[in-house]
Design goal:
alpha/beta, 6 strands, Uracil-DNA Glycosylase, subunit E, 6-stranded mixed beta sheet, single chain
């Protein structure tokens, strides 16, 4: 892994203003705030990835939440999706604590790195394909710096599509039709050096509150990720 490359990437991510719609939205949310967080400062900038630079597992999400990471400055931190995810990562032995409230709360990841397909909070939590592709070079640099990654765990179909584009940029051969997303879906490239993909429903409230994604389901996917990383 390259600590210098990751630090340079973080600086470039945080300074990015390439997508006017996302810049306007993230900054509007940071000014107007949610009433519950009215007294808190909001980050209001793009969100870099974080975790263990020696990680074998990369967890790829959709985008920062408007009042989660866009407020706290760390992906999946301070929102319900993150609550669900970090509790599972703690059960799996990947996170040192089951909760993550703010960026300085002591959370540490072991053998995992968490990032997002789009680095800015999007309106209605729906980034466009153009915004996804504009962010793609950051993920390319990230994966290049994280030299030990063996598995990319894609949280949702949007992240799965972004991961396929990421591998394509890394000159990995992709079949046609493209591998389909599904919960528990796995795809292994012909190239032995390429990370394999593992699919999981996104831990959004619309999935966790309805039972589409249960703690047991997420635990099973994380166990499988651990097996694949160890192979």
């Amino acid at each position: 892994m390259s600590h210098g490359a990751l630090q340079a990437l973080e600086r470039d991510v945080v300074a990015c203003r390439r997508c006017p719609r996302l810049v306007a939205w993230r900054e509007l949310v940071a000014r107007e705030k949610r009433a519950a967080f009215a007294d808190e400062p909001y980050w209001g900038r793009p969100i870099p990835g974080f975790g263990d630079p020696a990680a074998r597992l990369m967890i790829l999400g959709l985008a920062p939440a408007a009042h989660g990471a866009n407020r706290t400055g760390r992906v999946f931190t301070g929102d319900r999706s993150g609550d669900f995810l970090f509790a599972a990562l703690h059960r799996a032995g990947v996170a040192n604590q089951p909760t993550s409230v703010h960026a300085g709360d002591g959370l540490e990841l072991h053998d995992a790195w968490i990032t997002a397909a789009v680095r800015c909070a999007p309106p209605a939590n729906k980034p466009t394909p153009t915004e996804r592709d504009t962010c793609l070079p950051f993920a390319v640099r990230e994966l290049q710096a994280l030299t030990r990654v063996r598995v990319i765990l894609c949280l949702g179909a949007f992240a799965w599509a972004a991961a396929l584009r990421l591998l394509s940029e890394r000159r990995v051969s992709l079949p046609r039709p493209r591998p389909a997303f599904g919960h528990g879906a796995e795809w292994v490239a012909k190239e032995a050096s390429a990370p394999m993909l593992l699919g999981c429903f996104h831990p959004s409230q619309q999935n966790t509150f309805t039972g589409r994604l249960t703690p047991a389901m997420l635990d099973a996917v994380l166990r499988r990720a651990g097996e694949l990383c160890a192979d």
